[in-house]
């Protein structure tokens, strides 16, 4: 029996980035998971769809719909009541590699809240994290119980799997090429499909995004002034 046969539904955490697409392709064509068991689940960090994109790329909503149609799979859009921009200003600090509350609040907790509304059943949350990306991701477990959404007393069981943890970046791009799926437009400017102003962008990539979105970048600078904190997670000395 295949691992996936044990679950009523498989939730594919779907950013629209290359790894999340490779994840779905591997499930469909590698593990032969029935398409009707798969759901694309996207967490929008700027809040509900009616909110203007700030940290999200403006192209993402349309790109997700393109992928949903191309893959022939339903898409569920989730969002926290508080946007990432609001969350940052409330905390008075930026996320960092050691404290990625952008991920914990805007993605993990948002998904968990939605998963807890589901009825009894066995659900599998799959994510496109790869060991090749960083030493931190290389140490992550491939399989674990999703404690934030699991509730045995309600007969709701949620597990977490990273099926593409072993894949190399070249293999991910090849899967997309073979499936005939165009990459997210952001890859023309940055190496990762994450927040538009992600803390992990290189200085060159951040400069390019600032050039593309000068108004939003200026607001980013104003946020640094208001908080006295820079995106590099150091006390700001630029505006004293």
Automatic annotation (TrEMBL):
What Pfam families has UniProt attached to this entry? PAPS_reduct
Molecular-function GO terms, alphabetical: catalytic activity
The Phosphoadenosine phosphosulphate reductase domain covers: 12-188
Q: What is this protein called?
A: Phosphoadenosine phosphosulfate reductase family protein
Protein's organism: Cytobacillus oceanisediminis
């Amino acid at each position: 029996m295949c691992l996936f046969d044990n679950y009523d539904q498989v939730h594919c955490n779907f950013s629209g980035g290359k790894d999340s697409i490779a994840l779905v392709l591997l499930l469909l064509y590698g593990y032969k998971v029935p398409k009707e068991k798969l759901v694309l689940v996207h967490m929008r960090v700027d809040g509900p769809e009616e909110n203007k994109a700030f940290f999200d790329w403006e192209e993402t909503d349309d790109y997700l719909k393109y992928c949903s149609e191309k893959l022939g799979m339903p898409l569920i859009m989730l969002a926290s009541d508080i946007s990432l921009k609001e969350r940052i200003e409330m905390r008075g600090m930026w996320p960092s590699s050691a404290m990625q509350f952008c991920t914990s609040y805007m993605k993990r907790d948002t998904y968990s809240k939605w998963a807890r509304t589901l009825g009894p059943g066995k659900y599998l949350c799959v994510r496109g994290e790869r060991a090749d990306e960083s030493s931190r991701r290389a140490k992550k477990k491939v399989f674990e119980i999703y404690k934030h959404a699991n509730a045995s007393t309600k007969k709701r069981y949620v597990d977490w799997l990273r099926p593409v943890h072993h894949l190399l970046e070249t293999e991910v791009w090849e899967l997309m090429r073979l499936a005939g799926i165009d990459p997210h437009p952001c890859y023309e400017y940055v190496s990762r499909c994450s927040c538009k102003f992600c803390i992990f962008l290189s200085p060159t990539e951040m400069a390019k995004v600032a050039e593309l979105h000068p108004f939003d970048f200026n607001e980013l600078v104003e946020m640094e002034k208001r908080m006295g904190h820079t995106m590099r997670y150091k006390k700001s000395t630029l505006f004293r």
